[in-house]
Specification:
The chain has 319 residues and is an all-alpha fold. It has one domain. The chain is 76% helix and 0% strand. Helix 5 packs antiparallel against helix 6, helix 6 packs antiparallel against helix 7 and helix 6 crosses helix 12. The longest helix is centred in the N-terminal third of the chain and has 48 residues. The protein is globular, with a radius of gyration of 26 Å.
């Protein structure tokens, strides 16, 4: 008998790859600490800072008595350190002021659309112009908005015009950041065999992407502010179940049977890249001063397809 004439044995479908890396990242960032944990961390941090300050002052006092010149050097360094710490705290406060300003614009825009309030829409438009007044790259868009805003006679038309003039260029920048982060996470998951390394790389890529979203749309996230913003985004994703990978997501990104040709590690990288795109879209919605009106909301499939161009061969992408 000819073995070539034997009937083909169909292999059962392999289980779909799971986004373990991104699921771990969202659990690490999005899980809020309990009230007792927050109390412990805050009290511990305050106690550590108090003891460290007292020890430094005691050391400087004894140094002044024994070696006055070195003591004054220590005093100068301590003063510089204190001023730097105050400056960092002020920077974090200013960053949260800007986030609060963007959040207020979001709420006012939603209320103006719901109530069809033209006066409130005008106030939102004025707030947007003021928010981007110090950004030279938006000067031409602000001028066009000022020239055309008199043509709008209802709230939706005015906010749609503001979105088209001010948000559309920023949306393009945000999409490029999402594509870059998705590419990084997908490649790291696929090519790095060490589990903890890919988690750290995915966490860093997502935090950097979220910080860039804030900067693009007018916020300036500091270290603490960026982490809290990331927690807000990740908590939203966990609450909506967006960290689960389903067939629709995989079919959208992979285009059918491509995962059958790739190793399981490449499949996980593909899904992790897609979930990174979801994180980026959520960050856009959190940081964007206006909701999506006339401008299209980014799609995971199109973002990841562009992000992975060149990462896999053309034959693999065709499936």
């Amino acid at each position: 008998a000819n073995p070539a004439d034997a009937p083909q044995i169909d292999e059962p479908d392999a289980p779909l790859p799971q986004p373990r890396t991104m699921q771990m990242v969202t659990r690490l960032v999005g899980r809020p600490p309990s009230r007792l944990t927050r109390l412990f961390l805050n009290a511990g941090g305050a106690l550590f800072a108090f003891l460290l300050g007292m020890a430094a002052l005691d050391f400087i006092d004894r140094l002044l008595m024994r070696y006055p010149l070195l003591g004054w050097v220590a005093v100068t360094l301590f003063a510089v350190f204190t001023l730097a710490a105050i400056g960092m705290a002020l920077r974090e406060w200013r960053a949260w002021r800007r986030f609060a300003r963007i959040d207020a614009l979001q709420r006012q825009a939603g209320a103006a659309l719901a109530d069809e309030d033209l006066d409130r829409a005008k106030a939102v438009t004025d707030g947007l112009v003021a928010l981007y007044a110090k950004r030279p790259e938006t000067e031409w868009q602000r001028q066009r908005l000022a020239e055309r805003r008199a043509e709008s006679f209802d709230a939706r038309a005015l906010l749609t015009l503001a979105e088209a003039e001010l948000m559309a260029p920023l949306d393009q920048q945000a999409r490029r950041e999402i594509e870059a982060a998705s590419r990084t996470v997908a490649a790291t998951t696929a090519l790095v065999p060490l589990a903890l390394v890919d988690v750290v790389a995915a966490l860093a890529a997502n935090l950097r992407m979220i910080r860039r979203m804030a900067e693009i749309y007018g916020g300036r996230a500091g270290a603490v502010g960026g982490w809290r913003l990331a927690r807000t985004v990740m908590t939203h994703l966990i609450a909506t179940g967006a960290v689960a990978a389903g067939d629709d997501l995989i079919q959208t990104v992979a285009g059918g049977g491509v995962l059958a040709k790739l190793s399981r590690r490449f499949g996980e990288g593909l899904v992790n890249g897609a979930l990174t795109a979801r994180v980026g879209i959520a960050a856009m919605e959190v940081c964007r001063p206006l909701p999506f009106l006339a401008q299209p909301r980014p799609k995971v499939g199109s973002l990841v397809s562009r992000a992975l161009t060149g990462l896999f061969s053309a034959d693999d992408r065709r499936g």
